[in-house]
Structure formats: structure tokens, C-alpha cells
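Researcher: If convenient, please comment on what follows.
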Amino acid sequence: QVQLVESGGGLVQAGGSLRLSCAASRSIFSMLGASWYRQAPGKQRELVATITNGGSTNYADFVKGRFTISRDNARKTVYLQMNSLQPEDTAVYYCNADLKLSIMSRFENYWGQGTQVTVSS
């Protein structure tokens, strides 16, 4: 069974930076579009940023200019560089991506387990 595994979360002071990574738990054939979501306590999960297979990106207004989503197609890994972090960015961050496990399979959507980001004031 393949999972998406996020890493890079942690505790940081306001104004600091973190870089999240997301990759499949084992070798896969291909990764299509990918996104980062977040969910704060008591709130619904919300979309943070997306990146297409070709590298086109979109961001939620609340992270524009501070966060950058990128990907390494050779490593089949997606990143989220988070700068100028604020306490309101505190949440569990989830990776979501369409994966093709083998050349014979079709793309299917996967979620990661999430990584906690805590920003102290």
C-alpha cells in the first residue's frame, strides 16, 4: 500500500520559516498534480497551494507572497517553502497528489497523514 509521507513540520517562532516535503512511501511511476492543504483546530481543511505536472502554481490568498510550492519530478517529491510564518498558520499540513503506481495503473488520488506546524508568537 502506498502512502504520501510529509515531513518538515515543527515549532517555529513568528517570522520564521519551514520547508515541508511530500513523497510517496515507496517507488512509484509518476506523480501528476499535487496540493498542500491545512487544517487548524476546530476549522475545516483548506487548500493552501497547488502545482500541476508542468509546474504551474496557484495559492490561497492568505499565503500569497509567503509560501512557495515546488516539485522535483525526478524525485517525485513536492515541497512547500513557508516564510514569514504567523501564529494563524498553525495547523496540520496535508499533502494530496495524484499518483500512478506503475506503468499499467491509472492515476489515483492519495492523501498524506499530515505534519504539524506550530508558530509561536
Q: What stands out?
A: The mean pLDDT is 96. The chain is about 0% helix and 55% strand. The first strand starts at residue 4 and ends at 7. Residues 8 and 20 are 4 Å apart (CA to CA).
